[in-house]
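DM between two lab members

TW: hey, do you still have the PST family polysaccharide transporter entry open?
JB: yeah, one sec
JB: this one, 529 aa:
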Amino acid sequence: MPYQQREFMKGALILTVAAFVIKVLSAVYRVPFQNIVGDVGFYIYQQVYPFYGIALGLSTFGFPVMISKLVAEKNKREDIRFIISTSFLFISIIGGLLFTFTYFGAPFIAKWMGDSHLTGLIQTISFSFLIMPFVSVIRGFYQGKGQMVPSAVSQVTEQSIRVTTILLLSYILVSHGYSFYLVGKGALLGSILGGLGGMFVLFFYIRQNRFSPSYPKTSSLKRRTIWKRLAFQGILICLSSMILVLYQLVDALNLYFGLVKSGLSPLDAKIEKGIYDRGQPLLQLGTIVATSISLIIVPMIATAFERDHMAAVKKYVQMSLKVSFVVGVGAAIGLVNIMKPINQMLFENTNGSHVLAVFCLSILFSSLILTLSAVLQGVGEFFTPAWAIALGLLLKYVGNQLLITKLGTMGASVSTVLSMLIVSFILWWKIKRKFPLKVFTNEMIKKCLLATMMMTVSIQLWIMMLSYFPFIADDRLHSTFISISSVVIGGIMFVYSVLKSGVFKENELAFLPYGHQLVLISNKIYKRG
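TW: and the structure you got?
JB:
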């Protein structure tokens, strides 16, 4: 492998590991946070979190990716300085507009959500949009130069400071008896401090590098061209990566309001929304594999596509989609099987388990959407994923409006699953038109269904057997034992069934985490012709 390609793959691996750590932190901290603040406090935080999620997505995936491409295309120092300064001006305008809209529009947004007490929290989180230009441009510059460490360190630093501050401030404020709205402000302050921490890390690298981003006197580039690519490709890329956050935003806008409209008291509606939001960390954890695949697959497919290696493109597409589907099915059905005990293990009680079980079916479709979008972006199709996701958000909003007043939070879960199913189908249809692929064959689907059935039977038999031996007095401790043991038993049965039936070829297994070990295991239990 050539030196430049090795360095590129090394850099991609660094960013993938950083993204993995961030996703885990972002999902896991919500569990102790909910335990500290309860369902009402969790509702308050989740109502405002999507605004931070949008700022994070733009400054981590959208703009830096596009800036890095612009920088990588140029060798002259003056051209790079022009790209950086022009990009900074453009993102500053976008960040300023988003800050203005969020800060001054906070009363209107809070009223739209049906809770005017959220105004101050929305105004607090709006400051994250002012940090966005500095972080986006510096990350994009280093990634374009092939130096992924600054971006990775800043991302991990940002999330570490954020998570630590959120949990610490929440615990202190709750223990001193402050209102949950003030606790929510403290948690959001942690997000701002995390963003500042990530920014200062990047400033440190820039100072060490002695790079001056000042506006150059001469350059052959045109500002309009750079702005156009940032506006269209940068934002379109971002829409795909932010799908989970945008779905949370839709729920924040009309779920609580719909529950109150259905006849619940404001307090009961907040509790129900907080219970429903327990599904978010489960969804994030369930889609980590798909997120990692999307980060790896885009440069691989893009490189093969640019070199017109269509056989390699088809191979990467088939491999990524099959892995995403199988892992998504296993994660979704596995969680459905143990939703009641895992709900109690993580969140202290079993409230809303049936709603969360339906919600977790979206793990499969969100995994497919993330992977399908990444594949299309890899071959230069930026518009299709964006409009498909925009349509999905519209369907989700309308679905909430129609179903919540009749079904409560179950209506929100159903609208999430159905809208994501439609988006998945649209993206798959687009890929089928582009490449004659045979991924989701009847044989493959039958084998996956058999594996999920074997997993389900083994988990349910295990839970049934444990019900005759209530040897642990504490219900939450009992649920913890059931959850962890069921994950181990169900996971082993699912992996064994998948490997035994030969769903994956050796090169596809190698694409998975611990792929080498999986190949060795597969060769022992499945005789390949």
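TW: got it. The mean pLDDT is 83. The CA atoms of residues 15 and 483 lie 32 Å apart.
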